[in-house]
Write a structure and sequence with these properties.
With 140 residues, the chain is of the alpha/beta class. Helices cover 36% and strands 11% of the residues. It has one domain: Ribosomal protein L13 (Ribosomal Protein L13p, Chain: A), CATH 3.90.1180. The protein contains five helices and five strands. This is Large ribosomal subunit protein uL13.
Length: 140
């Protein structure tokens, strides 16, 4: 299944993707930088910035946990949180997910789907995942 992420809500698209992965399908997400996060720009930036800057209270030099900055990696991490990743079933399902920034040439002629239940309603406030990534310092 090849899905164009442009104009889709992050959580809704991630939940549809995780269900498909658990059913044994391979899922490819294109245009990950154009996936939308609902809510204000300040709230979304603060949420992801807090995750990126997280360090251990007892040992501030401990640099974990690692949290991604690039939009395709943020999407993959969101889907991973919806899978039983610590079990072999979830880990093997997660290997079937591929996310890309833009549309690579190998998928230019492929049949690309949209997920109607994950479409972004323009009446809501939102920000693109690519914009959040740029604010976090990612280059893509």
């Amino acid at each position: 299944m090849i899905i164009n992420g442009e104009g889709h809500v992050l959580g809704r698209l991630a939940s549809v993707t995780s269900k498909s992965l658990l059913n044994g399908e391979e899922v490819i997400i294109l245009n990950a930088e154009k996936i939308m996060i609902t809510g204000s720009k300040d709230w979304a930036y603060a949420k992801y910035k807090q995750r990126v800057d997280r360090a251990s209270i007892s040992n501030p030099r401990d640099l974990g946990p690692k949290y991604p900055r690039r939009p395709d990696d943020i999407f993959r991490r969101t889907v991973r949180g919806m899978l039983p990743y610590k079990k072999s079933k979830g880990r093997s399902a997660y290997k079937g997910l591929k996310a890309y920034v833009g549309i690579p040439e190998e998928f230019a002629d492929a049949e690309i789907e949209n997920v109607p239940e994950a479409q972004f309603n323009n009446l809501k406030k939102g920000i693109e995942l690519g914009e959040i990534s740029k604010l976090l310092g990612a280059t893509f």
